[in-house]
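Before a colleague's protein record goes any further, I have to sign it off. What it holds is a sequence and that sequence's fold in token form. Would you go through it and say whether the fold makes sense for this chain? The record follows directly below this note.
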Amino acid sequence: MSMTDVAIVGAGPYGLSLAAHLRRHGLDFRIFGQPMEFWLKIAQGAGNRYLKSFGFGTNIYTPENGYSFAEYCLKRGLESFEPCAISDFANYGIWVQQNVIPNVERFDVINVSHIRGGYHLMLSSGEELFAKRVVIATGLTSFAILPPELTHLPEHFVSHTSEIGKFNSLGGRDVCIVGAGQSALEAAMLLHDAGARPHLLVRGSRVAWNRRVSQGRTWWHRLRSPISGLGTGPKAWVLTKFPSAVHYAPEKWRVRFVARHLPAEGAWWLRDNVEKNVPIDLNCTLAGASERNGRVLVLIHDRTNGERQLACDHVVAGTGFRLDIDHLSFLSADLRASVHRIEGAPKLDRHFESSVRGLFFVGPTSALSFGPLFRFVVGASYVAPFLSAHLASKKVDWSSIPQGHPNQDCHKALPKARQLRSAEPRV
């Protein structure tokens, strides 16, 4: 069995950013996963899918200069402010990985269990690994949720917006879309463009849209509504400039704040297409759904007109994600049971460490401990340098490995950390 100081599970923006900083510290680590897998899957659904965040605030954060997403886009003649294509961001992440973190191992971690002195990992390659510390950086993978009214339907009748492989696979069909956030509104547009007949069901009394931000704003507008990687306005600016502040707020307040900050709304570039081409039913909630004659009958509670049914061929849920680590099935049941929770998410200390020593969580799973900033890629700008410095400051005590461990002395043969790659990026 091989050994390492730190094992990173996940090779998305948070995992790659942390790995880049661990290399700078010369720490022995291994990182597992398919680079940018979640983003690549989203991008493959349709060609015209865009980030809702600004390009300058959506990066793989590296210690070396020259690796920002905006620089990558400018050199290639791509949009670098907004809206930036998700496919461009996914390809950018792969480019950074190849240049800065070439040691990503494209295997899945299928089991992590806690043993005395550290963690035992099993990989899809068949390898077993002992790690002193483990960082979970799997992003939103595994956390998609369906409304309970839809969970009993056969899989070919219902999809989450994050799980649609190709929108054109639903062309020519009647599709009900549940939700009023970016993913639901984008799905409505993409389905219409693919030749489907989408119908949007919205719980609220209106659909909210954000406004386009001009890059040439006056100094007064910049002062009143500063722009940051989290958006515009004083609140977003404070959250970005003081990323750890929310962690010290009372837990009940923090949980409410995370739930209410940045409510469901659509991006400005979707508005005309959706409002002109997609029927929208407001004040509607799902009351049930059933299969009948090869179609789906959706039972709707309409606060204006009472209950009614809507027939369709497929239902798409733009209903977001629920951060419950019980969905991380690669963590052993005993390990998951040992982690203290805030609702379903891990309760973390100021170093992103869970109640189980040596087990860390970064990215969206840390949001209920640190605030809404960490639901987004921009949060990695704080996590990567902060957590890597913390991990590097803790000298590994290899003598704490259990007596009789088959690789108790193998740390003596561990290779020295690879030299840092040149700070000049390959284009």
Q: What stands out?
A: The chain has a mean pLDDT of 90. The chain has two domains: 2-143+321-413, 155-209+265-317.
